[in-house]
Structures are given as C-alpha cells and as structure tokens.
Amino acid sequence: MADLQDDLRPTAAAGDFDDLADPYPEETVVTAESYEPVSDPDDAPLTRAHAILAAHPVADGYNGLPWALKRLSYYDLELGESTVDTDVPRLRDGHVGALFWSLHLPEGLDGDRAVGATLEQLDLAKTVVRTCEEGLRPAATAGEVVDARSCGRVAVLFGPAGASAVGDSVGILRQLHLLGLRVLTLTGVSWASEAGLTRFGEEVVREMNRLGVIADLSGASPQTLRRALSLSRAPVLCSRSAARAVRPHPANLPDDLLAELGAAKGLCLVPLTAEQTGPTVRDVADHLDHIRAVAGPHSVGLSGTYDTGSAHPQELGDTSCYPRLVGELLRRGWEEADVALLTWGNVQRVLRGADFTARAAQQRRAPSTATISDLDG
Question: Which region ranges are annotated with the description Disordered (predicted)?
Fold first, then answer.
C-alpha cells in the first residue's frame, strides 16, 4: 500500500522543483526504520524468502526473452514455455514483479541498420506483451510498475537498448522514448568509448535526463562511467555488473567504481550468470555481500540475464529460482529490509528518480536537436 499511496500524492507544480534539494525523495526508499518484517513462526530461510518476496517481489534488471522468441514459430508464455527460461508461471513462482526486456542487438550492427533493428526489437517486445495480457503489462514509470503489480501482472519495461540505436541524432533517442524505451547502454559507439563521452555523448546524457531514459553503464569504460556519474542528474545503473574483487571478469566493477556508484546513488544489478558471478548460488550471494558492503544496501539489485544464452549458476536456472537466492541471503544474516531493497526498493527508487529529474528538466531545457556532426564533427 505504501507504493500506491506514494503514487496518489499530487504532482508538484513546476515552480516547486527549484525548492527541492534532494532529487531522490526519502519516501520512495525502503529503510530499516520503515520496513515492517514479515512474521514467520517457522523461520525457515526458504519459507521466509517466499513470504518476503510476496511483499517485495523481484524487479529483474535484464531479460533477453524477446530475442529468444525470434527463433520459435509458436509459443505460449501464459501456459508455460519450456524452450525458454522465462514464462508467466515461472515468473509468478519466482515472485518477479517487474523485468526489463533487453533490446540489445548482435555485434556488428551500426548506423541505420542498428536503428532499424532496435525498432523491430521494440515492436516484437510490445507484440509479446499484448499476447500475454493476462500475465504481463507494459510499464514506463514507477507508478505504472506499481499499477501492474496491483493488478496481478508482471510489469515489463523496454530496455536497455544499445547506444548505436541513437544513430547520429538526439532526435532519434526522443522518438525511441516515445515508443517506450526507458534504458540506454552507453558503450560501443564513438561518442561513448574507452576515451569517455564526447560532446555529443554528453548531450545524449542531458537529453536522457530530460526524457527520463536511464543510463546503463555496464561495459562502459571507467572514463565514461565517471563522466556519466558526474553529469547525470538522475540515478544511473549498471544492468549486468558484479564485483571484480570477487571474480575478476572484465565486465565486473572494481571496488573504487562500486564506491563511486554508491556515492552517486546509482545501482549495480548483479547478473545471475556462471561466467560473471560463478557456478553456484553461493557465489552470487558472495557478490551481493561484497557490493552491499562497498556501495551500500541502496545500490545493489538483481539482473537475471535469463534467455540471453548465458549459463546460470546451480539452483538458479530460470526465473522461478529467486527464492533460493533470497533464502541463501537470509541464511547469511541479511536483514529483511535489505532484502526488500535488493529485490524491489532500489529499482523503484531509480525509476522514481528518473521521473522526478525528467519533470524538473523539462521545465528548464528545450528538446535537443544535436547531431554528431554538430558537436563532434
């Protein structure tokens, strides 16, 4: 009910934004003081995990189902689909309340081909949601995520998409936003490279803030990550990043960047892949322990990366398995308030922060018409 009450609060008038010092209101964050523990007389970790997740479901930060469905001539996600890792029954068994659908493309696509392929991916994702209206509901804001959950549906947010989807114009980003895109990954293009953000890249970040598109910095260079953290007025996330100190994978973040991400109120979503986090559920829990200690409990979340072709740790083979992971965390002494942040509260905070920043920025900044040739040419 707290989330629903938050969404019913009247929207601030345009002039009120100047007087708000903190762009991430405390009322949107679950804290140890405000969280009410779920009582369970048996106190068995797995039973407690199901009880906690019933109140605070998983917001899964990365799922590749739309691309996986391209190879199937027929599927029924509401009845159940054994050829993929994600369907409505397993989402419900895993207490998944929201998930981000990846619009990433195979390597090698750029320019107009990348823009067109991203539009096709977005169209496919919307079609899949429409065919599963009993189980899924599209969402673009924190309020719509809560509405979907209240109706017994899993909220689907579109993104992240690759930066190549923007082509050479900020105007393309704006049209993608109108079509539902909510997360963009800042890597793999000339304007967000190992050298960092160019002038055009910085303008893309500013327009993302104005629109409410969240910056995804997984795979970005340290220079890009640090510049985006300093430039963005909205919280950023890393959609598939674990702790390099625990497992030295190049896509994982070192402690100094994790600490900077935490200080900026960003969010590190830990992928459930054997390659990045390790072969067992305990390995995943090790990463979550480490990131919570370094970045803080407000900066860690979950990224299933199901249906991406990746191998998953033991006991975490599909979207029904989240209670096993939460049970492992409870065995390690995680407080229920921190579990609630991990599964649901932190993603909601980032979504609300993006919405808040966009409303404020739209009062101060006109839509950008910048192109690469204007700023980097």
Answer: 1-22
Burial call 44-66: b when 16+ CB within 10 Å, e when fewer: ebeebbbbbbeebbbbbbbbbbb
CA atoms of 272 and 304, how far apart (whole Å): 5
Q: Write out pLDDT tens, residues 136-147.
A: 999 999 999 999
Q: How far apart are CA 131 and CA 150, in angstroms?
A: 20
159 in helix, strand or coil?
Answer: coil
Query: HSE on the CB side for 286, CA within 13 Å?
Result: 15
Q: What are the strands of the beta sheet with 154-158, ordered from one edge?
A: 58-63, 96-101, 154-158, 136-138
pLDDT of residue 92: 98
Going by DSSP bridges, is the β-strand pair 96-101/154-158 parallel, antiparallel, or unpaired? parallel
- Better-predicted residue by pLDDT, 29 or 73: 73
Distance, CA of 275 to CA of 185 (rounded, Å) = 20
Strand partners of residue 60:
99
DSSP 215: E
Cα–Cα distance for residue pair 45/37, rounded to 1 Å? 14
Contact 288, 269 (CB under 8 A): no
- Tokens 């964050």 -> residue: 29
Q: Is 31 helix (H, G, I), strand (E, B) or coil?
A: coil
Give me the CATH topology for the region 2-7+45-375. Answer: TIM Barrel (3.20.20)
Nearest CA-CA partner of 32 in 299, 318, 337, 354: 337
pLDDT for residue 26 is more than 80: no
How far apart CA 242 and CA 277 sit, in angstroms, is 7
